[in-house]
């Protein structure tokens, strides 16, 4: 998806999401180390080769010269959304992925993602230097082998799983690995050898709430808060669905 950014007041179209500063310099066509992120009521942040920032649209940039250091302290600390909350405060404009990830007390060695609404979540590497803004949103999930994300582990900690190729889901006491981000209720029942004409399927969400999944309903395993799935024989639920 293309969005507008502004360079010295002139609009330019770029792809929405994580973008490298080097790519920005190619788009703008200015000399290296002469582009700055404009922050209202605060200092402009110098953008240097090798750095990355998140573009959501309407960001303001200016071309010029400055004597600021490459990662200057800001007057007002940044408070990006982190794991669904704004509990961290960053006194400088830039931070390494590994240092941001360490702010997570539950999974300090987990995987860091940037949450981009309407687009695929992007994983942030440990050595990626990010130019952080208040509008940014990040989340951390536990590491998993072979790029398999455990939805129950994410659900228990109220983390939204990223979009990956494989998920581990729990159905009653059985754990199944699926190589898709979506399945119908009937397909989930089939994983444990059950038919929708004999069994109901529920999904248990973070906080204890349960939702009934119809056979044709499509379940998105990247949805936030899914802990596990439960089956209930229909004869045991007559009149209490």
Word description of this protein:
- The chain has four helices and 23 strands.
- The model has no long low-confidence stretch (mean pLDDT 89).
- The longest helix is centred in the first third of the chain and has 8 residues, at 21-28.
- With 241 residues, the chain is mainly β.
Quickly give the structural class. mainly beta
Number of strands: 23
Radius of gyration: 22 Å
Instruction: Let me know the average pLDDT.
Output: 89
Helix content: 10-25%
Looking at this protein, list some descriptive labels.
241 residues, four-stranded mixed beta sheet, 4 helices, 41% strand
Layout of SSEs?
Layout: E1 2-7, E2 10-15, E3 17-20, H1 21-28, E4 35-37, E5 45-47, E6 51-55, E7 60-63, E8 73-78, E9 81-82, E10 90-92, E11 94-96, H2 97-101, E12 111-114, E13 122-124, E14 129-131, E15 137-141, E16 148-150, H3 151-156, E17 166-171, E18 174-178, E19 182-184, H4 185-191, E20 199-205, E21 210-213, E22 218-220, E23 226-233
Parallel strand pairs: 1-7, 6-14, 9-15, 16-17
Antiparallel strand pairs: 1-2, 3-6, 4-5, 4-7, 8-10, 11-14, 12-13, 12-15, 17-18, 19-22, 20-21, 20-23
Give a brief description.
The protein has 4 helices and 23 strands. 11% of the residues lie in helices and 41% in strands.
